[in-house]
């Protein structure tokens, strides 16, 4: 079982292109409001529509709706596409391994695989939709805190514009992690279901050898044999897990062929 780097890159690009558009749009509108309107020094005026805060609040509400809708509309087709791409990569990998060992595998989709596919799509849809929701929650706090400190329009606008750069970096890193982690999980889940359907019941854990702080239990698991329907009892909380199942895990496994 191998994780397809091309699929991870594709997923990241899909998310990052929209995130960049969103951040540029929101930054442009909010910074314009700050620069074009006089600022009241009394933060108690935040509820007064004559104060820039009133314009900012309305702008963020409109921007939030626009971009959350955009992400909702892209979530399902993106999740379905990356799940299909991952499934195709899983099948190619297993067929290649089977040919080397002169093994014939029935590649029809089983009920278990279809259930896995639907669960993978649902989880990815939820995560994609969460990106703008968290982004706008953070943006609101960031902007209101900056305005509450006071200051001249130019200085405040420059500070908020710089903060949008930081916010974009944080959102970008989260999206990159989501794409990487979800492709790994989908590969693990679909490989597991495909291999069990082919009569393969056990695998040998292969530690990725990557990461700055590898999980000691995962390092120790390298070379250990396990049941595909169970995993090994090495989870962060002692639970049974499969390679690639825990957040950030890049471990894989080698299937133990039934002959």
Give an overview in words.
The chain is mainly alpha-helical and about 260 residues long. The chain folds into two domains: about 5-200, no CATH class; about 200-259, no CATH class. About 65% of the residues lie in helices and about 5% in strands. It is built from five helices and three strands. The protein has helices at about 5-35, 50-100, 110-150, 155-195, 215-220; strands at about 200-205, 225, 250-255. A three-stranded antiparallel sheet has the order 2-1-3, with helices on one face. Helix 3 (about 110-150) packs antiparallel against helix 4. The protein starts with a helix and ends with a strand.
Shape: elongated
Ranges where pLDDT stays below 50 over 5 or more residues in a row are: 40-49
Series of secondary-structure elements, N-terminal to C-terminal: HHHHEHEE
As laid out across the biggest beta sheet, the strand order is: 2-1-3
The helix-and-strand class reads mainly alpha
**Helical run tally:** 5
Mean pLDDT: 87
First and last CA, distance: 19 Å
Number of strands: 3
How large a portion of the residues is in β-strands, by DSSP E?
A: 5-15%
* Rg result: 24 Å
What share of the residues lie within helices? 55-70%
- Total tally of structural domains: 2
How does the major sheet shape up?
A: 3 strands, antiparallel
């Amino acid at each position: 079982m191998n994780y397809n780097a091309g699929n991870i890159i594709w997923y990241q690009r899909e998310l990052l292109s929209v995130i960049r558009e969103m951040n540029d749009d929101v930054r442009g509108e909010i910074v314009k409001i700050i620069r074009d309107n006089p600022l009241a020094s009394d933060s108690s005026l935040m509820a007064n529509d004559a104060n820039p805060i009133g314009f900012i609040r309305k702008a963020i509400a409109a921007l939030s709706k626009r971009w959350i809708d955009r992400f909702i509309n892209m979530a399902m087709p993106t999740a379905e596409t990356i799940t299909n791409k991952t499934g195709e990569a899983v099948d190619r990998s297993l067929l290649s391994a089977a040919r080397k060992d002169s093994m014939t595998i029935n590649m029809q989709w089983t009920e278990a695989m279809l259930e896995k596919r639907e669960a993978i799509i649902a989880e990815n849809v939820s995560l994609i939709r969460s990106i703008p929701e968290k982004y706008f929650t953070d943006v609101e706090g960031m902007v209101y805190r900056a305005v509450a400190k006071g200051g001249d329009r130019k200085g405040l606008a420059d500070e908020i514009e710089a903060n949008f750069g930081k916010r974009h970096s944080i959102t970008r890193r989260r999206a990159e992690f989501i794409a990487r982690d979800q492709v790994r999980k989908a590969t693990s889940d679909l490989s597991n279901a495909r291999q069990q359907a082919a009569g393969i019941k056990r695998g040998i854990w292969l530690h990725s050898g990557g990461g700055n702080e590898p999980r000691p239990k995962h390092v120790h698991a390298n070379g250990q044999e396990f049941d595909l329907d169970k995993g090994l009892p090495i989870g962060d909380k002692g639970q049974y897990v499969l390679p690639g199942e825990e957040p950030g895990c890049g471990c894989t496994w080698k299937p133990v062929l039934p002959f």
